[in-house]
Design a protein that fits this description.
Layout lengths: L2 E2 H10 L5 E3 L9 E2 L1 E3 L9 E4 L12 H6 L2 E6 L9 E3 L3 H12 L8 E6 L4 H14 L4 E4 L3 E3 L4 E3 L7 H13 L4 E5 L2 H5 L10 E4 L7 H4 L2 H14 L7 E4 L3 H9 L4 E5 L6 E9 L2 E8 L3 E7 L4 H14 L5 H9 L9 E4 L5 E5 L4 H14 L6 E5 L9 H12 L2 E4 L9 H9 L6 E3 L3 H11 L5 E5 L6 E4 L2 E4 L2 H10 L2
Parallel strand pairs: 4-5, 5-6, 6-7, 8-12, 8-13, 9-12, 13-14, 14-15, 15-16, 20-24, 21-22, 21-24, 22-23
Antiparallel strand pairs: 1-3, 2-7, 9-10, 10-11, 16-17, 17-18, 19-20, 25-26
Length: 492
Amino acid sequence: MSVNFRDVLSFLRDKGEHVGVRIKSQDNFNVEISDVISDSRDVTKGTLFACIKGEISDGHNFIDMAEAKGACALLCEHSVDSQLPQIIVERVRKHLGEIASLVYGNPSEKLLMIGITGTNGKTTTSYIIRSILQAAGIRTGLLGTIIESDGITDKDADRTTPESCIVQRQLAHMVNNGCGACVMETSSHGLFLGRLKGALYDVPVFTNLYPEHLDFHKDMENYFAAKKLLFTDYTKQNFKGAANFDDPYGKRLLAEFGENLSGFGLTQGADSRVTSSRTDINGTDLVIEANGHDTLSLHSPLVGAFNIMNTLCAVTAMRGHVDDGAIIKGVADVPQVPGRLERIDLNNGATVFVDFAHTPSALASVLGVIRGLSGGNRRIISLFGHGGGRYHQNRPELGKAASEFADEVIITSDNARDEDPAEIAKAIENGVTVPHRTILDRHEAVNTALGSLKSGDILVITGKGPEKFILIKDKKIPFNDSQTVTAWRDSH
């Protein structure tokens, strides 16, 4: 599908936007636009090149490259010296998603759109929801932290919420591939920066809110306000979603959008709650009660209290959109989520779990689950670091959380970025109260920990989950926790 230059201009003016135009001839109004791109390296023939001013680079400086690669028009913030027709707006990013949606045929209108926001649980919940939808016979795309799927092909995700024009193109691919639904993780950064512009959701979902990304949002109210945008700015009429009744911020959403949201939780008063559960190393059996009477018995291969909540969240969100048979089958068939309590058994009888947990609350939750599953009589080693440029106050708190459940702590590097890994490790060490050591090289740390394990021991590696690199300054160094563990196992 394509539109022409005049269509885009009319769209913006119909919205009441102040728009400037620079053209060489009247024929420019009829230029056909088939793609919208903000990265000049990805431009092809027929592309509207959007010149975004970012923190590091300015798209206006790459117009010559875009033109050479076949760009047919520009969306920019000031007039530029170019032969290409130009639409000039005050802020490109403000309009980019909606223009891309227009060019790609408004794909979110053709899909059942599920958007999941919150601090913890987004990825696992998205996998469960996609499994439920697929059990209902609905081909489903997925955009999240780990993978991007267009319903046919999966690839590694670059960021949780891509630029808005990329989101719209991905949604269009899903429609073209026969998808009937899309499940998306919607990050606070993506919501705040407008990367979801042009997408509207049928099922907005809120998991929980804990201190994270406060280096960006400054305080919890700003963080919550960014998450709340999913419900205020990005929903279709008569949307039906879910929010965590046990979370104080979820309660605020339920109070404001009660007619459109169902509350899930473990406490009395929730619209949907777990009335009984049993979990062991093989999975979890649970019974969910809705509205005080309607019950659903489920088995999930996932373990742990947080996965009970993730399952409850997904089931609450999907009830009314698919039948209960699909929910039962989808929950039972949910695949292993990479880097989310991912289990690897060693040849000597020891066990390794790899998980993305990178906040104190998430780390405590993961280690608490492992301690419970271990029967309390197996040695647990916790290995983790903390990302540079992130919420510094979390570092000693991570040490405290690990000390509560682990017998030993190994402090190592995470994505240090521009910080000194040794200083990050010292900050973590301030909260550790059990035997510990610091090995900054993560590869060495993992291999050292593996070499120390005896039959029955459990090593819990957290912080990076499925990530396939370590960020040090401006370098991406290939590394993956699970692959490192598997390689060690296969050589011993």
